[in-house]
């Protein structure tokens, strides 16, 4: 199979989306799965929120610019990307905090069951949050069972309370079968919480169709909401009337401005709100979501697969790249919008790439991770990235001392 | 006593600070205790973080611009305003979420005690958070005892685990005696959590000297960090090695980038971090704090008292204002940087004032609340505000229909 790269870019229906982002010309950014690029719409919106709304309209902006509804409004913009109908998604807090709310919500629904099944290789914060709940409530109410990926299905026994999984693995990009695992879990009466950090905005999702109970996800990766953007939380409508989450903040109150001393949860998805959210941060995310206008997740997925396939194809043509061992699934259907390779010098290779204007990231202990974001990446970018990588590996540029010193954030 | 207003403004050492804020010329903003005004430094910093750091330097900014240390760095800037030594203040999440962490931390330290004493008239979210913990853990581990203000001292018995109070009451502005109440609580083995939402940046504080255990506070009121700015959390150093908080997110891990599956809390104040924070929101607050450079909290307090005294003096000269009944303490030593008045038409009076470019806020059921922020308010502003208020009350302008319809946020 041979590729005509210029032709691929010419036929790319998503190519015009690149102009919606501010990205440095010289950089090939393969780390949108860690921090999404800056949408021009966010720049404009932040300026508006800061200067006009905060600076000029001050406190009246809560009504005048509808700050108060922003968590719901932004949630409704995310919902279609998740395959979620209205009134089920809200934006607030971080993934960690939202997971905590959902873990306790789910455990409370499952009286007599305490086990929370997850994957050893899950993103650590997810496991940490369960450990925190376990320490607080004791093993009789919460017990983390973390198993290897291949043992998940066997672990779904009828004494399990919750199955909590990250849909796309942060290291390998492997995708779990959401429909199958949710169904198997439900057959045993298990409630399912999906972490969509590496899925939302990257692959098509069908939360409603898969009958998912709860989910959380990230605003700053494929949704391009800015560094540390607020997270989102999905709760299926069928559960709204029977749940209570523990972080009873005033923003989740049915009537916050009555300042009643007794907590009465708001109806619906709003009951998951806690404290006052950062309006600047949320507005940046809200504006960023407009780049998804007029494209479907199927189109994004198709280009994402084509980009990773091209990368692998070009890599195979260079024997100097053989030492980079693919640890993502070879079948593009089974992986998200990333490719990960292990190499003993992974950290130094990442640093050398960054020094040559190709930006991947390193994941301990030995992984170079490339993210492919179809909204701002071209096929020519992929070809250039391979050329740079080839140069670094063939010339062993990564052995240079300056690429070995680890920074605080890797 | 008579006032020479021009003279007061001329002698005001804080007057030059007004130029550090972007405030609409025509507005007299008496609501900085709800949403602080926009510091020019924040405008510039946000632009830098968005365009240069996020847009251009992308993921490398976590190291290059030290995003990773921002929660600690901003905490250290707040510490002197609290009378707190280094390594005890961190910026993260919301007041509500931080209170949750501290409530459970404190309850866990107090085995055998479950009572959390607070004030009926506390800001509701504080009470709600205790209610959430009570529902989760049961009354044997957490039991909210909310009492009238005058009954607090009697409620401090040796079966109480935690005293949780807001230092300055959001409705009346009444100040609790932090030193005395902390001491009385400690005599009974009670841990004390102070909510400093209306105190930080408004009145001098001495957390270390008062031997306070824990505290939380707000970034968006007197600290001018922007709408929904992240909150701060104080934990006395003497407790750092014996505590554990339940929201075990990866940012609070000793080595977050080792991605270890087991949670090991970071040493010191960093253990209170949970998820990834919004860098834009936090940078806005960090920059806003620079307006406190080269002024002392004593200077701010002195001007604040002078402003509220002037307001009350001028009010007394207008019999048409007698129906506005002061519900803040008459002794300026006993109240924070606000004045509250009850009136049956409080909501409409607020709306009429706003319509005439004087911005207070309404607090249910019947309070007009004026905040006095010495960094951007002049004595002339106070005199003008009284003139406008007098006009509205004397002419009964507030009875106009258009001022009666309540907005979503009051």
UniProtKB/TrEMBL annotation, chains A, B:
<dbReference type="InterPro" id="IPR015421">
    <property type="entry name" value="PyrdxlP-dep_Trfase_major"/>
</dbReference>
<dbReference type="GO" id="GO:0019441">
    <property type="term" value="P:L-tryptophan catabolic process to kynurenine"/>
</dbReference>
<dbReference type="GO" id="GO:0097053">
    <property type="term" value="P:L-kynurenine catabolic process"/>
</dbReference>
<keyword id="KW-0378">Hydrolase</keyword>
<dbReference type="InterPro" id="IPR015424">
    <property type="entry name" value="PyrdxlP-dep_Trfase"/>
</dbReference>
<comment type="subunit">
    <text>Homodimer.</text>
</comment>
<keyword id="KW-0663">Pyridoxal phosphate</keyword>
<comment type="pathway">
    <text>Cofactor biosynthesis; NAD(+) biosynthesis; quinolinate from L-kynurenine: step 2/3.</text>
</comment>
<feature type="binding site">
    <location>
        <position position="198"/>
    </location>
    <ligand>
        <name>pyridoxal 5'-phosphate</name>
    </ligand>
</feature>
<comment type="similarity">
    <text>Belongs to the kynureninase family.</text>
</comment>
<dbReference type="Pfam" id="PF22580">
    <property type="entry name" value="KYNU_C"/>
</dbReference>
<protein>
    <recommendedName>
        <fullName>Kynureninase</fullName>
        <ecNumber>3.7.1.3</ecNumber>
    </recommendedName>
</protein>
<dbReference type="InterPro" id="IPR015422">
    <property type="entry name" value="PyrdxlP-dep_Trfase_small"/>
</dbReference>
<dbReference type="GO" id="GO:0009435">
    <property type="term" value="P:NAD+ biosynthetic process"/>
</dbReference>
<keyword id="KW-0662">Pyridine nucleotide biosynthesis</keyword>
<dbReference type="Pfam" id="PF01041">
    <property type="entry name" value="DegT_DnrJ_EryC1"/>
</dbReference>
<dbReference type="InterPro" id="IPR000653">
    <property type="entry name" value="DegT/StrS_aminotransferase"/>
</dbReference>
<feature type="binding site">
    <location>
        <position position="95"/>
    </location>
    <ligand>
        <name>pyridoxal 5'-phosphate</name>
    </ligand>
</feature>
<dbReference type="GO" id="GO:0030170">
    <property type="term" value="F:pyridoxal phosphate binding"/>
</dbReference>
<comment type="similarity">
    <text>Belongs to the DegT/DnrJ/EryC1 family.</text>
</comment>
<feature type="binding site">
    <location>
        <position position="166"/>
    </location>
    <ligand>
        <name>pyridoxal 5'-phosphate</name>
    </ligand>
</feature>
<feature type="binding site">
    <location>
        <position position="195"/>
    </location>
    <ligand>
        <name>pyridoxal 5'-phosphate</name>
    </ligand>
</feature>
<feature type="binding site">
    <location>
        <begin position="123"/>
        <end position="126"/>
    </location>
    <ligand>
        <name>pyridoxal 5'-phosphate</name>
    </ligand>
</feature>
<feature type="binding site">
    <location>
        <position position="96"/>
    </location>
    <ligand>
        <name>pyridoxal 5'-phosphate</name>
    </ligand>
</feature>
<dbReference type="GO" id="GO:0030429">
    <property type="term" value="F:kynureninase activity"/>
</dbReference>
<comment type="pathway">
    <text>Amino-acid degradation; L-kynurenine degradation; L-alanine and anthranilate from L-kynurenine: step 1/1.</text>
</comment>
<dbReference type="InterPro" id="IPR010111">
    <property type="entry name" value="Kynureninase"/>
</dbReference>
<comment type="function">
    <text>Catalyzes the cleavage of L-kynurenine (L-Kyn) and L-3-hydroxykynurenine (L-3OHKyn) into anthranilic acid (AA) and 3-hydroxyanthranilic acid (3-OHAA), respectively.</text>
</comment>
<dbReference type="GO" id="GO:0019805">
    <property type="term" value="P:quinolinate biosynthetic process"/>
</dbReference>
<dbReference type="GO" id="GO:0005737">
    <property type="term" value="C:cytoplasm"/>
</dbReference>
<feature type="binding site">
    <location>
        <position position="250"/>
    </location>
    <ligand>
        <name>pyridoxal 5'-phosphate</name>
    </ligand>
</feature>
<dbReference type="GO" id="GO:0043420">
    <property type="term" value="P:anthranilate metabolic process"/>
</dbReference>
<feature type="modified residue" description="N6-(pyridoxal phosphate)lysine">
    <location>
        <position position="221"/>
    </location>
</feature>
<feature type="binding site">
    <location>
        <position position="220"/>
    </location>
    <ligand>
        <name>pyridoxal 5'-phosphate</name>
    </ligand>
</feature>
<feature type="binding site">
    <location>
        <position position="276"/>
    </location>
    <ligand>
        <name>pyridoxal 5'-phosphate</name>
    </ligand>
</feature>
């Amino acid at each position: 199979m041979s590729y005509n790269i210029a032709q691929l870019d010419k036929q790319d229906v998503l190519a015009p989306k690149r102009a919606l982002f501010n990205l440095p010309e010289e950089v090939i950014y393969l780390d949108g799965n860690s921090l999404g690029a800056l949408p021009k719409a966010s720049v404009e919106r932040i300026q508006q929120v800061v200067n006009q709304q905060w600076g000029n309209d001050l406190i009246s902006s809560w009504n005048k610019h509808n700050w108060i509804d922003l968590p719901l409004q932004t949630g409704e913009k995310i919902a279609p990307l998740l395959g979620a109908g209205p009134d089920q998604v809200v934006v607030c807090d971080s993934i960690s905090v939202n997971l905590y709310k959902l873990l306790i919500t789910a455990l409370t629904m499952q009286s007599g069951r305490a086990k929370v099944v997850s994957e050893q290789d899950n993103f650590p914060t997810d496991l940490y949050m369960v450990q925190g709940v376990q320490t607080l409530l004791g093993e009789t109410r919460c017990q983390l069972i973390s198993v290897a990926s291949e043992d998940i299905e066997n672990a779904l026994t009828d004494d399990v309370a919750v199955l909590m999984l990250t849909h796309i693995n942060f290291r390998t990009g492997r995708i779990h079968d959401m429909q199958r695992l949710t169904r198997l879990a439900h057959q045993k009466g298990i409630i399912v919480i999906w972490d969509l950090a590496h899925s939302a905005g990257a692959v098509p999702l069908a939360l409603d169709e898969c009958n998912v109970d709860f989910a959380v996800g990230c605003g700053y990766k494929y949704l391009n909401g800015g560094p540390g953007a607020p997270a989102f939380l999905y709760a299926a409508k069928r559960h709204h009337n029977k749940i209570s989450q523990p972080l009873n903040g005033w923003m989740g109150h049915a009537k916050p401005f009555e300042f009643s001393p007794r907590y009465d949860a708001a109806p619906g998805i709003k009951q998951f709100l806690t404290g006052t959210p950062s309006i600047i941060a949320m507005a940046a995310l809200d504006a960023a979501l407009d780049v998804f206008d007029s494209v479907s997740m199927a189109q994004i997925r198709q280009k994402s697969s084509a980009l990773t396939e091209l990368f692998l194809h070009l890599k195979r043509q260079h024997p100097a790249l053989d030492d980079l061992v693919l640890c993502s699934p070879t079948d593009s259907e089974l992986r998200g919008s990333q490719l990960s390779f292990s190499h003993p010098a992974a950290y130094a290779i990442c640093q050398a790439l960054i020094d040559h204007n190709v930006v991947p990231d390193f994941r301990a202990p030995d992984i170079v991770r490339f993210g492919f974001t179809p909204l701002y990446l071209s096929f020519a970018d992929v070809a250039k990235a391979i050329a740079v990588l080839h140069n670094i590996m063939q010339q062993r540029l990564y052995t240079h001392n300056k690429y070995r010193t680890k920074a605080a954030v890797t």
